[in-house]
Amino acid sequence: MKNQSLTNNIDWICIAIYIVLVILGWLNIYSSSLSSMEGTAEKQFIFIILTIPLIFIILYADGKFYEKYASIIYGIALLLLLGLFPLGKTIAGQRCWYGIGSFTIQPSEFAKAATALALAKYLSDSQINLKDVNRQIQALAIVFLPVMLILPQPDPGSALIYSIFFIVLFREGLPAWYLLTGFCSILLFVLTLILEPQYVILLALLVIVIIYFKSRLGDRNIVFSSILFVLISGFVLSVNYVFTHVFKQHHRDRFNILLGKSVDMKGIGYNTNQSEIAVGSGGWIGKGFLEGTQTKGGFVPEQHTDYIFTTVGEEWGFIGSLIVVGLFVGLFLRIIYLAERQKTKFSRVYGYCVAAILFTHFFVNIAMVLGVFPTIGVPLPFFSYGGSGLWGFTILLFIFIKMDANKVNEW
Amino acid sequence: MRKVLLPSMIIIAASLLVLRLFYLQVINDSFKLKSDNNAIKIQYDYPERGYIYDRNGKLLVANQPSYDIMVIPRDIKNLDTLEFCQLLAISKEDFLEKIAKAKVYSPRLPSVFLAQLNKSEFAAFQEKIRKFEGFYFQKRSLRDYQVNFGANIFGFITQVSENLIAKNPYYNSGDLIGKQGVEESYEEVLRGIKGVKYIQKDKYNREIGSFKEGKYDTIAVQGEDINLTIDMELQKYGEELMINKRGGIVAIEPKTGEILALVTAPNYDPAILVGRQRSKNYTMLYRDSIANPLFDRGLLAQYPPGSPFKILTGLVGLQENVIDTHSTFMCNHGFAYAPGRFQRCHCGGGSRDLNVGIYKSCNAYFSNVYLRTIGKYKSTPYAVDVWSNHVKSFGLGQFMGYDLPTGKKGKIPNSKTYKRIYPGWGYSGKTIISNAIGQGEVLLTPIQLANMMSAVANEGYYYTPHIIKKIEGEKIDKKFTTKHVTTIDKSHFKPMIQGLFDVYNFGTAAGLRVEGIDICGKTGTAENFAKINGKRTQLEDHSIFVAFAPKDNPKIAIAILVENGGFGSVIAGPIASLMIEKYLKGKITRTDLEKRTLERSLQDQYAKLGGLSEVVKKEMRKKDSILKSKIVVPKVKIDTTKKP
């Protein structure tokens, strides 16, 4: 075990995709920074350079370090999140940053990795059975503790990401009805926004009645069906209430744009409209590097951060976008493949978390850019401008690469 | 099962994103345009329009600078409307209406707010233009007419219609385009090619440099000057002679097909269709449906040609060998061509051969020739087609292919025509005998008459009439230098030309001889009717005259039509001889005739036809008449249907 090279057994496929994505990301930031955001490309370059020592530190650490100290890391992350309330720096209404000189650090970007570690650690205990309700509650608590701290910042984007842990828990044995309930809730939520609540309730009744009479005589349970119906009705009505009374106007607007209900292209719809224009004008092969007219004109707001994919779409076209999407999908599937091959439950769960977290960012971000998801602040991993994000994702990924490299030492 | 959930989600989600990308980037192409609207501003550099010269290099049409006030409605800020309106001399209502219109076109694309200000109108505004955000000016050039005639030849310049913008990608809203006359037919030559500059804008609509380093920018190409075949002096003189008359004059150089003069009356000063008054004046001209000043009678008016058509009847007869120059027919002050059918003749009666038949314009003679021609073949329809093809070889009954945008085919009947009129076989030469003397189903335009005379003057060929003499650096279209040969042998023209010459010696134009010039000509008269107070009334005949001169080596062929001018030798004849004298000699010796002709007014004739609508009249009274001839207010209320 001694004199083991740092790079022994590490998965070069993951690293290669990582490097390509970071370089492509920087090129697009460079392009979008030419319009007005002077200095962003240079700063991002420094961030990228700084990931190199970071990666070496992660890889150099002892293979058991992360499992051993998972709880402590999680604790520190929670403290950092908590510390934002008295010490945080407010930017654009969000209290998500620590200011250190001219730099800012966003702890929620690191909290994801910490939560993943903690969850992996908790589940790796061989005694844990997720069929047990107490265990379910404990596992969910690990996930929701950071969410509780992130939501009031307010940073709904980062909080949203944590919902993907359900998928990880499901993989490890969480009963299916959690997901089913979650899925049905989302479906009912969307339906309620599109249709009037009374129609949704009527529809639900119809479905329940059909299921009731289709199922075998012995399985029919009039009490369960009734309760289900009451619950659904209550949910639909509360969604309607929450949407019209609790949501702020800008939240409502974000949904309405998506549903095609509000089309004020200069006000609230501006972002989505401009980002669709930028991507859509790319055509098959795009306008070419540094040739995007929308990018040059700075029409897409936040283009170097959350809307960085518009530059890809405009300057590299459908082909370029397809390559980027393909690289991401390749990375996710590779991580899942490696995770399933892990010998310890800890590294398997952690790997799963990594894939799930990266995937959620990827999907929510690009779906938002393409106008099929409400506007929400979620960065595109490795692409979006920002040191915290880049480092957070790098740490997340490379801890897993380290674990994977170390698996031969496990028994 | 639990293992495949996340990978499946990833693949499904990525596929959805790719589909969405495919829709946005490949299927839906509206984003390209939106993106260009966003980020690219197109600036045009309009080249100066080419000048127009006459055949001798005299300048007819030049340019003057003009200024369009442009507006981008979205960019208007803190506008002092009162001051703005005062500087431009418009009312507030005008202002609001124009802004609303511009907004409808596009709130963020430039549209023309006020077009074609001249230098002095613009001067005051120019000093203050910086104050008016959202407004800027674009320099254009307007036509500057050096002459006050030839409006029908030149055409005019107007803003391009939305219709055409949709059809022709070259034009943008507010661009100018030539309409009618040579401005239309030589639009692409005269206008040149506008230069385009693409400018990259940012989200604040600021210019941040050229788009792709000017890769797509183009430099304006100057419009080319053109020389017309028109003789400026002759054209001017023709228009003067036609004052207070209605009709058309077409003069052609037989050897080349070049149009020397193209007169229509009433006419107007081309300058009234320039600048801010353009559309108002145009509307007025347009609404004058009786005098119809926009109707180019030289090209568009179709009439039964009457006696000049006898020339062709005679030539076809000679060619078909049904007569020779010595064949004679008896004229009994007319011709009883069928039982109970008598066609009158004013030639005096007696034995007529070709020569006398022509110069006395004997109806009976030519009707007999025509009957023989049609009777030559067993099948009447076949004979009609033979005759029809001979006649058509003079360029009649079809579009002639000249380089002016308007025209009429005229009408030369053939067997198909008569099959329609007389279903079955129930007609013979006698049925259609009116064709012999240029009535019946025959219709010609003045330019066709002139072309016919060209072909006669050339003894059997003509060139397609055309108005373009020279385009800077370009040869004119080959079709104008291609000889069209008629189906009549050259030898048959000699006796015909002699007959036409004798029209001046002993015939209907004997009083119109010009000292030192041998003119060949033919009078004509076309009956016409109008419905006046509900009754079909015969009006004074249209006066027609065709001629060419000199007899040997002809330099000018001419056709003249004066509406309601009476017998051919009364008005059209004198005009023809004056025109010929003017062109060949450069001056007029017969000043009495000239004075009489210039002063001759047919306005009381025209008054019978009714005049302008009350609305137009009112507008007319406000300013001086824009027509060169006086408008006569009719005394009786008349509705007209002019029937030739």
Automatic annotation (TrEMBL), chain A:
Q: Which UniProt keywords apply?
A: Cell shape, Membrane, Transmembrane, Transmembrane helix
Which GO molecular function, any one, fits this protein according to its record? lipid-linked peptidoglycan transporter activity
- Name one matching Pfam family: FTSW_RODA_SPOVE
> Which parts of the chain span the membrane according to its record?
12-32, 44-62, 69-88, 159-180, 186-213, 222-243, 316-337, 349-376, 382-401
* A GO CC term assigned to this protein in UniProt: cell division site
Where is this protein found?
A: Membrane
Q: What is this protein called?
A: Rod shape-determining protein RodA
Q: Which organism is it from?
A: Flavobacterium alvei
What does the organism's lineage look like at the top?
Bacteria, Pseudomonadati, Bacteroidota, Flavobacteriia, Flavobacteriales
Automatic annotation (TrEMBL), chain B:
- GO MF, one annotated term: peptidoglycan L,D-transpeptidase activity
Sequence ranges assigned to domain Penicillin-binding protein transpeptidase in this UniProt record: 247-577
GO CC, sorted alphabetically, is: plasma membrane
Which segments constitute the Penicillin-binding protein dimerisation domain? 46-209
> Which GO biological process annotations does it have?
cell wall organization; peptidoglycan biosynthetic process; proteolysis; regulation of cell shape
Where does it primarily localize? membrane
Q: Does the keyword rRNA processing apply?
A: no
Q: Which domain of life is it from?
A: Bacteria
Record Pfam families: PBP_dimer, Transpeptidase
Q: Aminoacyl-tRNA synthetase as a keyword?
A: no
Which keywords has UniProt assigned to this entry? Answer: Carboxypeptidase, Cell inner membrane, Cell membrane, Cell shape, Cell wall biogenesis/degradation, Hydrolase, Membrane, Peptidoglycan synthesis, Protease, Transmembrane, Transmembrane helix
Q: Which organism is it from?
A: Flavobacterium alvei
Q: What name appears for this protein in its UniProt entry? A: Penicillin-binding protein 2
Which PANTHER family does the annotation name?
Answer: PEPTIDOGLYCAN D,D-TRANSPEPTIDASE (PTHR30627), PEPTIDOGLYCAN D,D-TRANSPEPTIDASE MRDA (PTHR30627:SF2)
Q: Where in the cell is it found?
A: Cell membrane; Membrane
According to Swiss-Prot or TrEMBL, what is its membrane topology? Single-pass membrane protein
